Amino acid sequence: LLFAMGLGTTITFASSHWLLAWMGLEINTLAILPLMCQSHHPRAVEATIKYFLTQATAAAMLLFASITNAWITGQWNLEFMSYSLPTTLVTVALALKIGLAPLHAWMPEVLQGLDLTTGLILSTWQKLAPFCLLLQINPSNTSLLLILGLASTLVGGWGGLNQNQLRKILAYSSIAHLGWMILVLQFFPSLTLLTLLMYFVMTFSLFISFKVNNSTTINSLSMSWSKAPIISSMVPFILLSLGGLPPLSGFMPKWLILQELTKQSLAPLATLAALSALLSLYFYLRISYAMTLTMSPNILLNALPWRLPSNQHTLPLATTT
């Protein structure tokens, strides 16, 4: 199944024909579905069905848009998206595929039903193929991308504030970061790729840290000092980096994106995006506070775990972090 996922993404990467690109996305979706519901838990099955329905809808929309484009222009190449209707349809379909606001509602629900490893694949690898297509079609409809991007940064900020579940918080964080990438996509595509890469690295280390701690709620994080003390002291750095706090590396893409937006004389938009990053920063701070700054036995919200010697390899994790 993992091989098929890789194959689907590679087909989309290599394709210059709309049908082939669509086929790659479909293979990708079909390969991850069994991985999502392998635990046979009702929540996992529910999440899988939700994911399947949204991805199928998006893929059908994409196919419809590419057929419309072929009908108007008479050819199937990805580069020739000169008409606004098919281009807008494709952009909306891909936005639904990666979970940009206001088409984001499936993302937190689906991620909440999965275990952390599959959630990691969903937050990182599954974003690659649609992004590749978005970069290639280079939508002429500038305002649509800006609206999607700004809505995503705001929704990603507001949505995560009220959450206690780590996976939902990570889903909203993913929506916010994708919004930042989409904002700058048409002005500076290579900066979008840099942001995507930085986001992958930070998300990877965060998911793996939570997996080592075996924690899915903020409350259970307060016990991580007894399980993995080094990781507990490292995770706030990842979180603040995700929030985009200087001098951490997550600040770099945000700074460059704000600079690019001001160069394009979109200063009000840049201001709004920067303010929405503060909302995200608030809930990252909340997690880091729960993880490192509270002396757990004094505010015991859950039972202490047995302090058995850990058999998990923390050295590769520390290097990743």
Automatic annotation (TrEMBL):
Residue ranges of every copy of the NADH:quinone oxidoreductase/Mrp antiporter transmembrane domain listed in the record: 15-279
Residue intervals passing through the bilayer: 49-72, 84-107, 143-162, 169-188, 194-213, 225-245, 265-285
Annotated catalysed reactions: a ubiquinone + NADH + 5 H(+)(in) = a ubiquinol + NAD(+) + 4 H(+)(out)
Keyword match Endoplasmic reticulum: no
Subcellular location: Mitochondrion inner membrane
Its membrane topology: Multi-pass membrane protein
One GO BP: mitochondrial electron transport, NADH to ubiquinone
Swiss-Prot/TrEMBL keywords: Electron transport, Membrane, Mitochondrion, Mitochondrion inner membrane, NAD, Respiratory chain, Translocase, Transmembrane, Transmembrane helix, Transport, Ubiquinone
EC number: 7.1.1.2
Gene Ontology molecular function: NADH dehydrogenase (ubiquinone) activity
Any single Pfam family the record assigns to this protein: NADH_dehy_S2_C
Entries under InterPro entries matching the protein: Complex_I_Subunit_2 (IPR050175), NADH_DH_su2_C (IPR010933), NADH_UbQ_OxRdtase_chain2 (IPR003917), ND/Mrp_TM (IPR001750)
Domain of life of the native organism: Eukaryota
A GO CC term assigned to this protein in UniProt: mitochondrial inner membrane
Functional description taken from the UniProt entry: Core subunit of the mitochondrial membrane respiratory chain NADH dehydrogenase (Complex I) which catalyzes electron transfer from NADH through the respiratory chain, using ubiquinone as an electron acceptor. Essential for the catalytic activity and assembly of complex I.
Family (UniProt): Belongs to the complex I subunit 2 family.
Protein name (record): NADH-ubiquinone oxidoreductase chain 2
Organism this protein belongs to: Fundulus heteroclitus
Lineage, highest ranks first: Eukaryota, Metazoa, Chordata, Craniata, Vertebrata
